[in-house]
Amino acid sequence: MEEERDYDFPCSSLAVDSVVRLGAGGAIWGLCLGSYDSRKNGLTGVPRASYVVKSVGRIGLQCGLFAGLYTGTRCGVQRYRRKKDMLNASIAGAVAGAAIAIKTRSLTQVVGMAAFLSAVTSAADVMQTN
């Protein structure tokens, strides 16, 4: 029944839903991490608040964009191939991993992150279906 439900919603709706969900989780993580790091760096007052707000925005945005890219790619590949299997998660993980690592401008890191996230998302997909 869950397989049929995935085809009822457009990929854009699924991607936006995952952006909002994981972006909110990333923002909470950024709030915790920003507060800790600002205290560790000895910041107080306005500089501390500014540091925390920047951490919340940066980490929330990164998590949300990763989730949207992964979900949109997975849904698009699944609809293109008309199959629901592990390969969809592998391709989406590779694309999202490469997108995360592209800012390093190192081909080795881009390929490594793409392979790593492809393996992790494939394993998660296998565990979810079993």
Question: Could you outline the blueprint of secondary structure elements for this entry?
Answer:
Elements (H helix, E strand, L loop, with lengths): L1 H7 L2 H30 L4 H37 L4 H16 L5 H23 L1
As a whole number of angstroms, the C-alpha radius of gyration is 17 Å
Cα distance spanning the termini: 15 Å
> Helix and strand string, N-terminal first?
HHHHH
Count of extended strands? 0
Shape: elongated
Number of alpha- plus pi-helical segments: 5
Q: Overall pLDDT, averaged? A: 87
Structural class: mainly alpha
Give the % helix: over 70%
Question: What can be said about the biggest beta sheet?
Answer: none
Q: Which stretches are poorly predicted, pLDDT < 50 over at least 5 residues? A: none
**Residue fraction in strands:** under 5%
Main location: membrane
Pfam family, one: Tim17
Subcellular location: Membrane
InterPro entries: TIM22
